[in-house]
Design goal:
Layout: H1 2-28, E1 37-42, E2 45-52, H2 55-60, E3 72-86, E4 95-100, E5 106-112, H3 124-130, E6 134-146, H4 150-153, H5 166-188
Parallel strand pairs: 2-3
Antiparallel strand pairs: 1-2, 3-6, 4-5, 4-6
Length: 193
């Protein structure tokens, strides 16, 4: 009986904790897409970037957007540095991309051009194979996508440093990983009879 009460108590604490985490996340999310935003200074200008810190949001990126506001865009956060490469799958506008190493130093930049949409006569594989890739060239941990022409307007170059709140970004990616593990474990739970 005592073990059962303890388990029920722990379950109640867990549910309350998850509720507080959800409330906290809801307060931080002010975008229609439900993504948290991070303020960053790039080239002396203030930007408010949507944060993509989990597998789903990183895969979706800015797909389907017809425009990107001048001081907005997206910040992709990865837990570990890696050789990264982006493409313009389902993207409806050109955009600039900036790859940053773990310290915030620019390791690569590209002007990405929108691609023709998938044709009815082509398979998904054929569509994806024709898309151009834009590589990081070196190990990168952060990626920023901005309105087209931003890299030139801001006079950015490889080797420049963009100041990032590295602790906060690490906290964001770890929180997203915890939520992803929780979602996976909930999918594995057997349903009650």
């Amino acid at each position: 009986m005592y073990v059962r009460q303890t388990l029920v108590g722990l379950l109640v604490v867990f549910v309350l904790a998850m509720g507080f985490i959800a409330l906290d996340d809801a307060k931080k999310k002010d975008d229609a897409k439900g993504l948290a935003k991070q303020e960053i200074v790039i080239g002396g200008e203030n930007f408010k970037l949507e944060v993509a810190a989990d597998v789903d949001t990183r895969a979706r990126g800015l797909m389907g957007r017809k425009t990107i506001d001048e001081h907005s865009g997206m910040l992709f956060i990865y837990r570990k540095s890696d050789l990264l490469s982006f493409w313009m799958k389902n993207c409806l506008t050109d955009m600039d991309i900036i790859y940053l190493d773990r310290t915030g130093k620019i390791v690569a930049m590209h002007e990405m051009k929108k691609e023709p949409v998938k044709r009815e006569d082509e398979t998904q594989s054929q569509y994806e194979n024709r898309l151009k890739s834009y590589p990081s060239k070196k190990l990168a941990r952060y990626v920023i996508e901005l309105k087209p022409g931003s890299n030139i307007r801001l006079k950015l170059k490889e080797g420049d440093k963009i100041k990032l709140d590295l602790l906060k970004l690490r906290e964001i990616v770890l929180r997203e990983e915890r939520k992803e593990r929780l979602r996976k474990s909930q999918r594995k739970l057997p349903s009650g009879n």
